[in-house]
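tool=predict chain=A
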Amino acid sequence: MFGDRVTFAVKRFKFLPQSVVEAGFLIALMFGSLGPVPRYSGWFIAIIGLLIEKNEVSKFVKSLPLLIKVSFAILLVWGAGVTILGAQSLFYWAKGWSLVLEFAFSVLLSAFVLRFPDSFERWRHYMVLVVCFIGGFTLWAFVFNGKTEGLFPLHTFPSTVTIPLFSLTVLAAFDGRGNWRGNILHFTSLFLLVAMFLIGLSSGALVSNTVALVVFLCLFRPSGKALALFFTLAFLVGVCLSVTLPTSKHWSLVQRKIRSEIAQLSSFSDPVKLTSKRNNIWEASFFLAKRHPAGIGWNQFENIVKNYIEKKQLTRKHFFPSIHNEYLTVLVEGGIPSFVAYLLFLGVCISVLHSLARNKERLKSALLGSAFAGILVFALVGGLFDERQILAVYFWTIFGAILSQHDNIIVREEERLL
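tool=predict ok
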């Protein structure tokens, strides 16, 4: 009798993962900010679940749009070939090619899990918890220790991770019909999201989140009452932050950094204000793209640039660890075939978003459309593949969530009951 009651209670708790695959997927997202080991552990659990559900996996693969299959096939096969030609050893080949492999796996895993409406809703709620987890540590580290990086190895990461999480946090306070359902958890998550954004502010995150907010308002169009409640919540968040952040002795340093990042937006060619020297990096990138149209191999940019500097064919103006532009990264490291395949993939995502807007799926259209717009803008000044160790999975999950809403893939409630 007691066991039956426990089983019934568990089934009623809607936020519990409904499969091993979903559990692994959510674990990878919940604790992925701690590093690659928790993410790989979650993926390992998800792979076990995929093996258990091999019939469902087979149906899912068959339902994938043809352009997605072609795109991923080119990225994986061509990427493997061009990387093995440019890599110095099998280890460097595996390290480079695994970038594309992780991208494809993360996107497809997300699409497989989130094609169910209940799983999609659970994912939305779990991402609010992710914001609270990351934001709580970031704020604590800043106020008490003066550190701006929080859980991350780089001080700009807290603001960068807000790009894929921004729309999820804002829309968490609304239900599927656009009605307000805000509570203390939504206030806390928005408070911590803005805190992360300010503490680790980067110009890329500033522009990306601004674009995402504009797209969100255009697509979602909340009622006057809901909008008033949301802006009241935002005002309260601002008041709390104005009291909390200055308690840190290092707040003045963050203020100077914020002014510096904002100044970069109008100084793209100024070597004094453009702290990342992206103009020099992109100059070297275009040089390599012309010399190697087939690609130099994934994760080989730094080594190839050093070779050309030693040959004095490139002037060393800046240290070149990565390209700081997603599109140039794919073009230079993966070559023209990979670049075309990546554009095909993005094209499918855009077509799915257009379909959602046309079918008046207001919440999903606003959530995924605004997140996608923010990511596309960030890709102009940052590289998702460069952030593979910690942040990339959150960006790639947005791609997978979009793909999960494709008419061929999504499993509607009435179909699931059958």
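The chain has 19 helices and no strands. Residues 126-275 form one domain.
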